[in-house]
Write a structure and sequence with these properties.
This protein has 415 residues and is α/β, with parallel strands linked by helices. The protein has 15 helices and 14 strands.
Length: 415
């Protein structure tokens, strides 16, 4: 992260915080404020260094405030955050995604954060702001934006006689038997049910113009024809030898995955930060970054990560000051550089020497953050095991999605 002098930082914060008044029930401007941060920066050492620097610089500009940025694991995130918000303990601030925020707004455990930005919300990418808003109020300060694109193993494609990268459903299905004949799978698909469907099944659903929920949000729609066809597409690729053995229990970790071991030709949902390890494993000249895969439309997954404020925070003034600092160009730009994710501010440019970075930026208009429904995560938890059952050959695409829909609609109170 680029350091800035304390005096300069103080000036930036003074401008950013203009108009940020404390609530009647907020604590004083000093004290301790705790932020739960997750492995947005995948490299643990880099993550610790970056966030320690954020703490140091913030405290230098805000005498009397003790900022504690606690690095948390992704595992068990939903349960821990839900428990902490209900109890009003553990953190003042935490990073959440658009599909998590609405349920906590419904529960009354989050505070709007518009005032922390002093009216400067228009400096953020419009799609990031809208994705983190509920009923016109901003509930998360956007600090990074994910962007995903497919990554191809050129060596495997060449060996199978496939000249152009297969980036449509028809091309992928046509490539599957050719790659299988060479002992390679086509798609690396993490089918373990604890993997987020945003990075597995949902992009294929969206590519087929399907949605998780009905338009009124009162029932699910993933078992309608677009969803069934999307799951059937995966099953057809699997039948042609296009999914690796053990796909139904495969995790998303790169280490030992079919991608880095050269056993699968396409990683359909990859992030910029993952290119380094993939290139190191396969050879930089053997790795191609493509456009989002196209079904009926060309789309991939990407969402902003937003820092939210717990309604029961006992030190809201200090928490809002930390929120304002996290929103500065220095932090947003530094985080983008360290994490490989995209910046959320319109006045921050992508940095680094990787020419592929611009491809991930250019893809932002083709990215979808998913359904921001209060029950999005609960529905995901009942759908994922049914998709796994289909991948294991235990159920047809229609049966798996119908069974999931029955359970999901019960959660929504519509069955």
């Amino acid at each position: 992260m680029r350091r800035i002098a304390a005096a300069g930082l103080a000036a930036i914060l003074a401008g950013t915080l203009a108009g940020c008044g404390g609530d009647d029930d907020s604590g004083g401007s000093g004290g301790t404020v705790t932020l739960w941060m997750y492995p947005v920066i995948a490299d643990q050492a880099k993550s610790q260094e970056f966030w320690a620097g954020v703490e140091k610089d913030f405290e230098a500009a805000n005498a009397g405030i003790d900022a504690k940025i606690e690095l948390q694991p992704w595992e068990g995130r939903q349960e821990k955050v839900t428990t902490a918000l209900a109890a009003g303990k553990g953190f003042d601030l935490v990073v959440l995604g658009p599909d998590q925020i609405p349920q906590y707004v419904d529960q009354g455990t989050l505070e709007p954060v518009d005032s922390a930005l002093g009216g400067a919300t228009d400096t953020f990418v419009a799609t990031s702001r809208s994705a983190l808003s509920v009923d016109g109020k901003l509930y998360g300060v956007p600090i990074y934006n994910t962007s995903t694109l497919p990554v191809y193993n050129k060596a495997l494609l060449d060996k199978a006689g496939i000249a152009d990268v297969p980036d449509t459903w028809d091309e992928i299905k046509a490539a599957a038997p050719k790659l299988a004949a060479q002992g390679a799978a086509t798609l690396s698909y993490p089918g373990a049910p604890d993997e987020t469907l945003n990075l597995t099944f949902y992009p294929f659903l969206w590519q087929n113009e399907g949605q998780v929920f009905s338009a009124d949000g009162k029932s699910v729609a993933f078992n309608q024809p677009p969803g069934v066809e999307a799951l059937q597409f995966l099953l057809d690729v699997q039948k042609a030898g296009g999914l690796p053995p053990g796909t139904a229990t495969q995790k998303s970790a790169l280490e030992g995955s079919p991608v880095v071991t050269g056993k699968a030709a396409i990683m359909p949902i990859a992030q910029l930060s993952q290119l380094g390890p993939i290139r190191a494993a396969l050879g930089a000249d053997k790795v191609i970054v493509g456009q989002p895969i196209q079904g009926k439309k060309r789309v991939s997954f990407g969402l902003p990560g937003g820092v939210v404020l717990a309604k029961r925070s006992e030190n809201k003034d200090a928490a809002k000051k930390l929120l304002a600092y996290l929103a500065t160009p220095e932090v947003v730009g530094g985080l983008a550089k360290a994490s490989g994710f995209m910046p959320t501010r319109t006045d921050v440019q992508v940095t680094g020497d990787d020419p592929a970075a611009q491809q991930f930026v250019d893809a932002l208009p083709l990215l979808y953050a998913g359904d921001t429904h209060p029950k999005a995560r609960q529905v995901m938890s009942v759908l994922a095991p049914q998709i796994q059952a289909a991948l294991q050959g235990k159920k047809s695409a229609q049966q798996a999605l119908d069974d999931a829909a029955k359970e999901a609609n019960a959660l929504l109170g519509t069955s």
